[in-house]
Design a protein that fits this description.
This protein has 251 residues and is of the alpha/beta class. The chain contains 8 helices and 10 strands. A hairpin with a 3-residue loop joins strand 9 and strand 10.
């Protein structure tokens, strides 16, 4: 079995808290998020077919310096069969998955492998269907239902002790989802789930965006991000911000 691999980083200190991990980028995604900077992965414009054994060997080359693997995209669950085969082959390493929550049933199947320690799930905006569709260019009318189901499966597996950490994160884009009411609405909903932490990411247009108009958006200042994080803090115990200048900070 093969996977379409779009990128590979042999080690990273920022993709898994307090760990050094290899980062594997899988191609394909059901979303076309207007602010996304991973166009090559989303559109599969640059990729290589790699067999599972070949990918594992590539990871094993760095086994002396890495403690885990972060699998990102695109959307890793777009290639769910190959993904499940891959995580089943990776031994003695922590595994983190970045996902957008669009494929709840596939996510559940992945978690049943008992090989996933950490899930980081992107929440694009508050769970308003029109806003979510506009930002992701996904016209599925069951989009919000899918997100809720993924949240349910994540917390169910964490409650069973089959998942160590769940991180929800939102990239804050000035003029799009930076309204305090949006953050309040979102956090009041996700506070009902057993979530380890919530992160507000600083939007950065410098790597390019799918919607070129987003490259003209001014980056939000750290102080403004901190102000929004205080709203989130009213609902969620562990809130953090990530900025290009200071990295991750716990609020």
């Amino acid at each position: 079995m093969a996977l379409k691999i779009g990128s590979f980083l042999d080690h990273s200190t920022i993709d898994y808290p307090e760990e050094i991990v290899a980062v594997l980028g899988l191609c394909g995604c059901p979303f076309r998020c207007r602010f996304c900077h991973n166009g090559d992965l989303v559109y599969c414009s640059k990729w290589k077919d790699m067999e599972i054994k070949e990918i594992k060997s590539m990871i094993d080359e760095y086994s002396d310096i890495i403690t885990g693997v972060c699998i990102t995209g695109g959307e890793p669950l777009f290639q769910v069969d190959g993904l499940i085969s891959l995580v089943s082959e990776i031994k003695n390493k922590l595994i983190k998955i970045d996902t957008n929550g669009y494929f709840p049933d596939r996510l559940y199947d992945l978690l049943k492998t008992d090989r996933i320690e950490y899930i980081a799930m992107d929440i694009k905006t508050d769970l308003d269907l029109v806003r979510y569709q506009d930002l992701t260019f996904c016209k599925d009318n069951k989009l919000i239902e899918r997100i809720f189901t993924s949240l349910y499966f994540l917390t169910r597996m964490k409650d069973k002790g089959k998942l160590k950490s769940i991180e929800l994160r939102t990239t804050i884009i000035p003029g799009i989802n930076d309204n305090p009411t949006i953050i309040q609405n979102l956090c009041s909903v996700i506070s009902r789930f057993n979530i380890s932490c919530y992160v507000l990411n600083q939007f950065s247009p410098y790597k390019g965006t799918l919607d070129k108009s987003f490259e003209k958006i001014t980056v939000m200042e750290r102080d403004e991000l901190l102000s929004l994080s205080q709203i989130a803090k009213e609902y969620i115990r562990d809130v953090r911000i990530r900025t290009t200048s200071r990295g991750e900070e716990k609020v």
